[in-house]
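Quick log. Single chain, no ligands specified.
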Amino acid sequence: MASMMSAHLSKDFFDLVKAIGESKSKQQEDRIISDEVQTLKKKMPEAKISRKKMKEFLVRLIYVEMLGHDAAFGYIRAIELAASKNLIQKRVGYLCSGLCLSPDHEFRFMLVNQLQQDMTSSNFLEVAAALGATIRLATTDMIPPLLAHVVKLLQHDRELVRKKTVMVLHRFHRLDASAVSHLGPQMRRTLCDKDPSVMAASLCLLHAQITEKPLGFKELVPSFVSILKQIVEHRLPRDFDYHRMPAPWAQLRLLRILALLGRADQSTSEGMYEVLGDVIRRADTGINVGYAIVYECVRTVTTIYPNNNLLDEAARAIARFLGSENHNLKYLGITGLAQVVEQHPKYAAEHQLAVIDCLSSVDDTLKRKTLDLLYRMMNPVNVEFIASKLVESLEQSTDDFLRRALVSRLCTAAERFAPSNAWYVATIVRVMELAGELVPNEVAQQMLSLVAEGGEEGDADALRADAVDRFVGMLHREVVPDGLFHVLAWVLGEFAQLSSESADVANAIATLAADDARLKGAPRARELLLTALIKLAAQSDDINTKAALRSLAERFASSSNIELQQRALEALNLLDASTEDGGLLEDALPYDASLEDPLDGVVTGEGEDRNGGDALGFLDRFVASALNAGAAPYQKPVDDQDESEEESEEEQTNFKFEAYAEPQKPGRRVQPTSYPMGESTENDEEIARRLQEAEYANQPPQRTTARGGNAIGSGGGLAQASGPWGAPRQP
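-> predicted structure:
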């Protein structure tokens, strides 16, 4: 069509195309198109313009729309040209309408009548042009008037018309599947069309239907298998070959259909095994389209009911992909292996090294895909090896998204497959060293709980000592991540005495806490380190440790950081109090009490009701001193909560059986008239008279107003304003 059109186009058109291609900037291109728009607006409305010239103008109009400018002024000309008797002009009119009209444009409905006429034409080229335009122009509202004409064309003599008819039905199905649901038998018959092009077009339509309802097409499996076998055996004309590969697009579509029909169905899958193995062997020819078919075969084999021979074939194909130098083929291998491993993990071990090598690729997409696959491949046997490789990648990576994914995968895998508690702690600490800001707080808290609980039974301090040694080595580093300071300070504060050189640990903590340069990026580090040093001084009898604590606390006692100042002052008070009572610090901060309830053993009750232990016994001396100084003894407050609860329970059990009082209607309240004892109330007229007198007596006095307004001095009628519920407001 392009060669036919080019013979009828003027020099102005080719100059336009040349100018667009040679433009140096978007601004220059916009100027060219703006000038072209003005030219078309001027020339297209001319009365004597020929259809041949109008055809060229519409082609130029397509260029205007294609480059982002509005050409709505010429849409009606495209509708008019579609009614031309000249086939080329008709096709240009349909082409411009299909490319330029939006799906909800009202001009589309102006073409329905013309499409119906062209579909009934004796010229099959006009019919094909109308069907091609319908594919681009059809909307849901256009299906009813066109469907009957389209269905008739399924019996057309020309294979071109039948193929385009199937394509139109596919378009209708995508727009509204219910509109063509009654055409199931006609659609299935297209699969048996004598022309391969019609058959190949029907595969797209049937694939869309099978995706929605696979159970209704199980009986077509032998037909699909037979077609695929004929294609693989080169029984189709050579016109359908692509790089010596027979009908590759039809093979891909058939493989996807077979995967849908064979899912979790052993009897159906058994009929596919032979042809799938043949396809894998024949498609591996070393060309890209062959690789695509092999990959689709791998997906099909892993989707249908499993067969060991086919899985072995798929594993060998994946190995060839992974061993390639082409990153695209490696990506196919990684993706295919991920699908195999998901259902059959035993195939992961032999490809483990090849997969890990992909982590060093410069292709970021391949790295992310490899990371997902390694996570799926992890198990208690290989977790140490794979985790070490992931940690190396985390150390080398600078991509924030990849680092975040690596941290998430490492933390999850360490929790699920950790071979020992020590390995888990070492892995999480290493991850926090490399990307502490990305590690969730829950992971760090879980690790601390594990350290607090200790190691295996009978050797509780082994895990703690290992963690202490690991963190002691970090005290001398130039940079420690902020997130790691919390863990480091807590572990050293609780269990630093397990180190053989606990005095050196105290000095190292004090030195680090006083170093402004090393703590520049960790605002809370000093508070944490000071608390750790307080705990360490409480657990140690070393005078140097307490001296280091006092020196550090005196330095920060006047700090502008309120939290740090408070901790420093508390440390000094504890040190001063411990000079009188040497066991005070140890009682206040006991060793290995992180998992105990602080109130366990607190004394409760008095006299004979006294119970509990002595968890807060170190406070007794302070209480005694205060009492000797004249302080009032502690008096337990009267707690009547129990009595109120009992009363409330009794109230809840007492049901009220009396009727509720009738609600009073809002309005002016009328005082009830009281009668003397023994007076008869049977006289209705007397009752009515007395009620009327009572109502009149309650009415406020009327004021005289001038000209219907308020009386002078009446305050704007405020004295007559109504109170709540309409009752007169009292003065």
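Confidence is low (pLDDT under 50) at residues 1-5, 601-613, 668-682, 701-731.
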